[in-house]
Amino acid sequence: MTLRIGFIYHFDDRVWQGGKNYFASLFNAVHAVAGNTVELVLLTGHRTQTTLGAEFPFLQVVRTPLLDRRHPLWLLRQLGRMPSSRRDDPLFGRLLQRLRIDLLSHSEPLRAHGSGVKTLGWLPDFQFMHLPELWSPPELERVRRGCENVCRGSDALVLSSHAALSDLRRFAPWFDKPAHVLHFVSAPAEADGLRSAVSLRAQHGLPQVYFHLPNQFWNHKNHGVVVEALALLKADGSDATVVCTGNTSDLRRPGYFAELMERCRAVGVEDRFRVLGMVPYRDMQALMLRAHAVINPSRFEGWSTAVEEARTMGKQLLLSDIAVHREQAPPGAIYFGVDDPTELAAAMRATLARPRIRTPPPDLQQSYATRLREFGAGYLQIARAL
Q: What is the pLDDT at residue 3?
């Protein structure tokens, strides 16, 4: 019997590249294990920008105004979901029945939707518990309430790390439904067709040797410690350049990027801290593959897609010493204190003294294939149990 699983997708690819990569990896893993015995259906709004349907021909994409914020049908749906309403999301429930959805996975917070479909919720992390200062009080309450709604509205939960599972136990000790940890796996970059190092250097004026920092410019991603490490390296005569890719806008702290760049100028490393902003994904992969090493200085992660991508390429990784990075445990990673530029500078200096790994180890592809199948099989075991 074919299992039809629906996924609600409510953000643009470019707004949260890590989220897009997560879903792409999950779809790839499930299809690799289950083939046509499982049908994957992406439920999204007409206004949502995503290329997932084009990237995965086996993925059915259903666009509905019920998922377009402030559309009249979206507003009507919200009225049916209000606590005072006796109806439980009947419009969305009928859509799920019409599409013959057996399981709604990784969905937005739902109350019972009247369709009889089980829901598998996804909570990527509990960042608000660790870094509450990044939100205003109303935003903090909105995020907290959203996580609580996912817990109350799901028949089971998927979490990306054991660190997140530990946070769940503290956040919702009353939660008594199944909670599963599922480590996701990123696909390796196909070297064929990726731009050469010469081409990248010519376009962006890059040096032959550089580190890659592929994070959005959000405050918790902690680019500042890299700026300070570069200043220390410059002071002792060491040459190092960090190339950054990612969205430069932080909605929670709009002035963050400007402050960061002002600090670069103040310590004289604006020529060594190179910001390329958003680049095409294949160019990001090429920049990572050609880099001497990859840095993730983040203060908090649910499960880093950047770390997973670098791992599948066999890259040397320099990681902030946080619980999730230790849990990801990429081979040969070097850890440094979250706010310790001296430790990071030492790690960068030691890495520059070694030759760059130009080609991934021979067993990397087999390792990836094994981890991908484990990812897909683990998810399907959870889905079928529901």
A: 93
Question: Hey, what are 337's tokens?
Answer: 């204190």
Half-sphere exposure of 248 (CA within 13 A, CB side): 14
CA distance 78 to 83: 10
Element (H, E) at 54: helix 52-55
| Number of domain units in the chain | 2
* DSSP conformation class of 35: G
User: What mean pLDDT is predicted for residues 190-201?
Assistant: 81
Q: CA-CA distance, 188 to 39, in Å (whole number)?
A: 24
Q: Tokens 């190179």, residue?
A: 274
DSSP category for residue 299: S
Domain hosting residue 41, numbered range: 3-186+370-385
Task: Count the Cβ atoms, other than its own, within 10 Å of residue 341.
Answer: 21
Rounded distance between C-alpha atoms, residue 93 and residue 178, angstroms: 23
Q: Looking at the structure, tell me whether residues 10 and 156 fall in a common domain.
A: yes
Question: What percent of the chain stands above pLDDT 70?
Answer: 91
Are both 36 and 180 inside the same structural domain?
yes
Q: Could you read off the pLDDT of 245-285 as tens digits, one per residue?
A: 999 988 888 899 999 999 999 999 999 999 999 998 889 99
